[in-house]
Design a protein that fits this description.
about 210 residues, alpha+beta, 4-stranded antiparallel sheet, about 40% helix, globular
Length: about 210
């Protein structure tokens, strides 16, 4: 893994090189392509999961509205976490191939990106960024694995994946591997997650758009 400092993000070396080339192309068109999140270790992903499973962090619907946690069953909690956040051990952000982005030139210096649908729809602060990415990101090897809702993750246009490496990484993930990872993890809802793993693998890990 390579840590790049300006801008600050971490990824595999080939993905770093490709992203910096994409960023330079964006800069020529007046866009400041800033990494919001990149490599994320398993402890960070576990902390996100446990916060959401316990109800201390909000769960959102497809429009980015907070759900009523008190009305959800445990299986619903698992599925709603997975609408926006990956299972620890199965997060693409752990591969060093994924980068969430925003346009630093489109907002005031004190603006905190939310990475929610309201920012990327017509009239949203990052709408023009994503129109630009539609045209240019493929030239540099990037795709959006969550470009549209296919029954698993909600659309995340800000989530870019470096396809030459992420395709290889996905091939290494299996239900058996995830079973071993989850069994050893200090994860809330462990028994339920293990029971649901075939569904999670099918709907939230393999069900991506990499064309």
């Amino acid at each position: 893994m390579t840590q790049h400092d300006a801008p600050r993000f971490a990824a595999q070396p080939e993905a770093v090189e490709a992203f910096l080339a994409l960023r330079e192309a964006a800069h020529r068109d007046g866009i400041d392509l800033v990494p919001y999140s990149s490599f994320r270790d398993s402890r960070t992903q576990l902390r996100i999961w446990n916060g959401k499973f316990s109800g201390s962090k909000p769960l959102y619907d497809e429009q980015g509205r907070a759900r009523d946690f008190s009305r959800l069953t445990p299986p619903e909690i698992v599925r709603h976490i997975l609408n926006w956040s990956a299972l620890p051990g199965a997060s693409r952000h752990q591969w060093g191939t994924e980068i969430d982005v925003f346009d630093g030139a489109a907002v005031p210096a004190d603006y905190v990106p939310k990475l929610l649908p309201e920012e990327v729809t017509p009239g949203g602060v990052f709408f023009e960024l994503h129109r630009w990415l539609d045209t240019h990101m493929g030239t540099y090897g990037f795709v959006r694995p969550y470009r549209r809702f296919n029954g698993g993750m909600f659309p995340e246009p800000w989530h870019l994946s470096y396809r030459p490496l992420s395709t290889l990484a996905l091939e290494q993930v299996s239900v058996d591997l995830l079973t071993r990872v989850i069994a050893e993890a200090d994860i809330l809802g462990k028994d339920l997650v293990l029971e649901m793993l075939p569904e999670i693998y099918r709907d939230h890990i393999c069900n991506v758009d990499v064309s």
